[in-house]
Amino acid sequence: MNTKFIIVMGVSGSGKTTIGNALAQRLKWDFYDADSFHPAENITKMANGIPLNDDDRRPWLNSLHDLITSCIKTKFPGVLACSALKERYRQTLVENNQDVQIVYLKGDYELISSRMGTRTGHYMKPQMLRSQFAALEEPTNAQVMDVSIPFDEIVGKIIKTIV
Predict the structure, then answer these.
(1) Residue 99 DSSP symbol
(2) How far apart are CA 137 and CA 44, in angstroms?
(3) Cα–Cα distance, 111 to 116 (Å, whole number)
(4) SS3 assignment, position 117
(5) What is the pLDDT tens value at each position of the chain, 163 positions in all?
(6) pTM of the model as a whole
(7) Cα separations (Å) of 70 from 11, 17, 66, 97, 161?
(8) CA atoms within 13 A on the CB side of 1
(9) Inter-helix orientation angle 54-73/87-94, to 10°
């Protein structure tokens, strides 16, 4: 595979933004945070502790798919940090796009919950983490990274698989 786009996925607090941003910097690719593409209504729901449903996510996922397609067509590789918890969400993101690699940041509830407890200024509340784990359908076609190892090591391992 000639990777031109990477989706870094996992539950909230798994390190998607930190790892995705570091990965994009090392590769000199563009970085995108899927959270920035949510409509205001979705952010308001999550900030109020209300999990999103599939209808809430549909336009958001479609806009992310359009972003990935555009990056690949214009030959501007990118890295997207996106929860992409369900298989059908990942299918929507990569539909008709070759050369997309999915990286799954896997960690247990206790570790990720403890990380979320130290995070400030994020609309995703720690009490919503259980709903993320409940919705998670672990991918079978992704590079799996254990989030208990240092972030720099994770980034290095990802880069080795695409170079």
Answers:
(1) S
(2) 25
(3) 9
(4) helix
(5) 477 999 999 998 899 999 999 999 999 999 999 989 999 899 888 778 787 889 999 999 999 999 999 999 999 999 999 999 999 999 999 999 989 999 999 999 999 988 776 555 544 555 677 888 999 999 999 999 999 999 999 999 999 988 5
(6) 0.90
(7) 26, 21, 6, 10, 23
(8) 14
(9) 30
CA–CA separation, 18 vs 16, rounded Å?
6
- Collapsing DSSP states into helix, strand and coil, what is residue 163? coil
Contact indicator for 17, 81 with CB cutoff of 8 Å: yes
CB within 8 Å of 23: residues ≥ 6 apart: 6, 8, 29, 31, 79, 155, 158, 159
Write the CA distances from 56 to 8, 46, 126, integer angstroms. Answer: 21, 11, 20
- Which residue from 139, 144, 148 is spatially nearest to 157, judged by alpha carbons? 144
Please say whether the beta carbons of 16 and 113 come within 8 A: no
